[in-house]
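User: Here's a structure from my thesis project, written as structure tokens. My advisor, Dr. K., wants to see whether a designed sequence matches the one we expressed. Can you design one independently, without my sequence as a hint?
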């Protein structure tokens, strides 16, 4: 088994970055992953006393499927966001003006939840769906098996995962729960399955819901899980091509 893809999603709900390698530290999520999120008008997020909040408090694909079609690129230190239905924008996420521009741009996409919008960036805390600093792990074999069942092409970014593994048997990651795995020189404890919401039902190509992933997971597997969360217990660098060791 080996790592074939490493992804992070700098802005919760929006496009991805592919990494060749990344340093993983004990007690931390993948660096830069979900470092920024944008709340909506019905959110419990308080910009005067910012803290981690559950997914429902932010602009995300589960509520606004159009976000699935957003692509992200780095341009001279800024982030460029593009979508088929609105003009692209470049934002500096370290500036007040850039953060305001991000919130306005997300609010302008079709189906966005109304404001007021606020940008969440917390020192030392990723705005991931789970409050603990987990790394998400998936296998391409499971993706192919599920995609065949769904009748759609394999699309990793439906699931917004961090590390993708090749040459594992389908659904092997579920057998790793409660056990340790090694990615290159990094050791992780696989702690729990990832229960899926509406987000993977949206196509990364069109931003429209085209398949009921959660319902079909229930029908196919008897549960809505796809992928696993793991915590880093011995840090180091992981890279595309690194070997993966896991219990048989």
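Assistant: Designed independently from the structure alone:
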């Amino acid at each position: 088994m080996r790592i074939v893809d490493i992804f992070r999603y700098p802005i919760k709900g929006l496009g991805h970055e592919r990494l060749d390698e990344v340093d993983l530290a004990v007690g931390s999520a993948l660096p830069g992953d979900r470092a920024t999120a944008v709340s909506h008008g019905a959110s419990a997020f308080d910009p005067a006393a910012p803290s981690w909040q559950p997914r429902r408090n932010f602009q995300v694909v589960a509520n606004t499927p159009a976000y699935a079609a957003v692509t992200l690129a780095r341009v001279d230190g800024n982030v460029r966001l593009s979508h088929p239905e609105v003009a692209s924008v470049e934002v500096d996420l370290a500036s007040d003006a850039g953060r305001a521009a991000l919130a306005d741009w997300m609010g302008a996409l079709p189906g966005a939840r109304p404001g007021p919008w606020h940008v969440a960036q917390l020192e030392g805390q990723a705005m991931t769906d789970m409050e603990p600093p987990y790394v998400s792990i998936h296998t391409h074999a499971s993706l192919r098996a599920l995609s065949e069942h769904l009748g759609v092409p394999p699309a990793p970014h439906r699931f917004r995962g961090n590390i993708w593994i090749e040459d594992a048997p389908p659904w092997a990651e579920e057998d790793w729960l409660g056990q340790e795995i090694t990615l290159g020189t990094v050791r992780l404890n696989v702690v729990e399955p990832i229960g899926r919401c509406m987000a993977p039902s949206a196509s990364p190509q069109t931003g429209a819901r085209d398949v009921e992933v959660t319902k079909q997971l229930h029908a196919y597997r008897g549960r809505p899980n796809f992928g696993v969360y793991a915590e880093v217990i011995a840090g180091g660098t992981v890279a595309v091509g690194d070997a993966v060791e896991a219990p048989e």
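When you compare it with your expressed construct, this may help: The chain has two domains: 2-30+130-245, 37-120.
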